[in-house]
């Protein structure tokens, strides 16, 4: 019997095997349906003992929307096992991993679904530079919105730098800028405002999306607010580093 959409994506993630878009191999479906498949997929990991560490916003910058040919922000769920925590990235254990520079926030309080943007900002306890490793399960990293949402928005791994208390003294979050370097070579750079005008607006989008889905952001969760620049393909041996002007650096050694 043919595998279901969720089973197909689950197997592709688990065994790092690329697949043809499920909107082609199975059927066309809406973005709303796609979030339902994403939920089913995550529930499966949770039943196996995985734990949610937070959420990620995706396609929040113009650079990413143009790179991926998709024109609206999306969100995915982060699991604890995606956190590299300083360990090297085994490139061959993934399909075609790419790195992107992001700003991460860590919540010190729950964010009520109807909290104002000021209340939401007060729930941010810490901020850090981050590298997200995305690994679309689809051939050639090409997909439609429903495909990528069902694939948990290409989530694979992430590395977080040192958490600094938020707000940072004398610096507004929108003044942060990041540089993405591979083996010391500058590949891309951009301002925090590249993500929906502000990482705060990206977090707001996450809050409102979860409210629509009947859930909410909670204390202890981290949120990746979206790639500030294009994502860069990685090869074994690469050293990826994100340098920032106010948050320090974070890096991942590939092997
Ligand atoms: C989708 C995930 C995008 C971001 O930060 O824009 C994303 C993809 O590009 O494969 O994580
Ligand atoms: Mg990302």
Textual characterization of the structure:
The chain is an alpha+beta fold and 255 residues long. It has a single domain (5-253), classed as Fumarylacetoacetase-like, C-terminal domain (Fumarylacetoacetate hydrolase, domain 2, Alpha-Beta Complex), CATH 3.90.850.10. The protein has seven helices and twelve strands. The chain has helices spanning 5-14, 22-25, 31-47, 62-68, 117-122, 145-150, 199-212; strands spanning 52-58, 74-79, 98-107, 124-134, 155-160, 164-165, 177-182, 185-191, 222-224, 232-233, 239-244, 249-253. The strands form two sheets. Strands 1, 2, 3, 4, 5, 6, 9 and 10 form an eight-stranded mixed sheet that branches. It has a four-stranded antiparallel sheet with strand order 8-7-11-12, with no helix packed on it. Helix 1 (5-14) packs across helix 3. The radius of gyration is 17 Å and the shape is globular. The termini are far apart. The model has no long low-confidence stretch (mean pLDDT 97). The structure holds 2-oxoadipic acid (OOG) and magnesium ion. 2-oxoadipic acid (OOG) binds at residues 56, 58-60, 64, 68, 100, 132, 134, 136, 148, 153-154, 226-227.
Radius of gyration over alpha carbons? 17 Å
Strand content: 25-35%
List ligands, each type once: 2-oxoadipic acid, magnesium ion
Run of helices and strands: HHHEHEEHEHEEEEHEEEE
- Number of structurally distinct domains: 1
Unreliable stretches:
none
Average pLDDT, rounded to a whole number, is: 97
| CATH topological fold name | Fumarylacetoacetate hydrolase, domain 2
Principal-axis shape equals globular
Question: Which homologous superfamily in CATH is the superfamily?
Answer: Fumarylacetoacetase-like, C-terminal domain
> What is the highest CATH level, the class?
Alpha Beta
- What composes the largest sheet? 8 strands, mixed
- H/I helix tally: 7
Determine the N-to-C terminus distance: 38 Å
Structural class: alpha+beta
**Counted beta strands:** 12
Helical residue percent band = 25-40%
């Amino acid at each position: 019997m043919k595998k279901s959409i969720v089973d197909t994506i689950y197997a592709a993630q688990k065994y790092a095997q690329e697949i043809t878009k499920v909107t082609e191999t199975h059927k066309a479906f809406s973005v709303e349906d796609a979030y339902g498949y994403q939920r089913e997929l995550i529930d499966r990991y949770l039943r196996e003992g995985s734990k949610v560490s937070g959420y990620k916003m995706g396609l929040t910058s113009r650079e990413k929307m143009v790179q991926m040919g998709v024109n609206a922000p999306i969100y995915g769920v982060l699991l604890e096992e995606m956190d590299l925590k300083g360990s090297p990235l085994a490139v061959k254990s993934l399909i075609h991993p790419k790195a992107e520079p992001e700003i991460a926030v860590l919540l010190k309080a729950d964010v009520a679904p109807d909290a104002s943007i000021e209340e939401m900002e007060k729930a941010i306890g810490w901020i850090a530079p981050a590298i997200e490793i995305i690994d679309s399960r689809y051939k050639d990293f090409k997909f439609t919105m429903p495909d990528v949402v069902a694939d948990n928005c290409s989530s694979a791994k992430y590395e977080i730098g040192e958490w600094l208390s938020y707000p940072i003294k004398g610096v507004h979050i929108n003044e942060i800028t990041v540089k993405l370097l591979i083996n010391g070579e500058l590949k891309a750079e951009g301002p925090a405002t590249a993500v929906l005008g502000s990482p705060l607006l990206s977090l707001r989008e996450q809050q409102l999306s979860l409210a629509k889905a009947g859930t909410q952001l909670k204390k202890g969760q981290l949120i990746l607010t979206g790639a500030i620049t294009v994502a860069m393909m990685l090869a074994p041996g690469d050293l990826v580093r994100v340098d920032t002007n106010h948050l320090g650096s974070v890096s991942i050694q590939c092997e």
